[in-house]
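Many introductory courses stop at the sequence. We go one step further.
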Amino acid sequence: MPQSEVICMAISWAVGFLFLRQKVNLAPLHDQATDREETHEKGRGEYNIEIACNMKNEGFDTAVISKMTGLSTVEIERLG
């Protein structure tokens, strides 16, 4: 086996090892990031509902509210 192939294999193994090591060590951080994203999405949904309520109270059309907030027309009609 030529020396260049041996070097390439060694580098490939080392990179793979480092990647797996980082992946294992970063697993708890990934879980924390996922939790933050879910919290952010929940907050964004609550914000959209608040905006939709305000728009509905101001007399905006349901289709316009849906387009602006991403809520379905059924969700908007249920709002008080």
